[in-house]
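User: Round two. Same drill as before: sequence, then structure, for each protein.

Assistant: Same drill it is. First protein:
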Amino acid sequence: MSQAMDELEARAHRRLNRMRDLADEMTAVRARETSPDGVVTVVVDGSGALRELELSTGITKLSPAEFERVLVSTAGQAALRAFAERAELVTAFNEEAAE
């Protein structure tokens, strides 16, 4: 019985450590996207929150509406990439847990 408990405890520790690894990996997710015209570059985290914003001097040629469109579109693309990366991490985790 002691061996069975030891194996159960070891398996629980492995799963707990894997869950901690997943949390760290998800926290580390970053996605960088640059607008097609190179005017806006954004970096978002795994939840889609803006972490970095770089603007080139080309923004002076954009109207406020154009700037808004480019910024929102670029940030949206970065968020999609970040969400896809998180989904891949969760899928891999679930596949490992199912084994």
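Second protein:
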Amino acid sequence: MTAYVVFIRENTTNPSQLEIYAEKSPAGLKGHPVTPRAVYGKHLVLEGPKIEGAVILEFPTFEEANAWYNSPPYQEALQYRLKGGNYRGFIIQGV
């Protein structure tokens, strides 16, 4: 069953770290069956605190989404994202 990885950026704390993340993160996608569905596009917060943006990535299964997130290439890039901003992230199974 399809699964989605969702990252919500609440605020940026270090733009230079996010630039490094942007350079490194594409390598983490190689070999993984991922389809980007939304990447920091226009958004409107309907409930809760404001956000800077969000990313939604689609994977064929929950396990494949989790495998991508925990893969060594993505984990290498992840450290820069976490130094660059405050995020919420989760995997949710589709219907």
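The first helix runs from residue 15 to 29.

User: Perfect.
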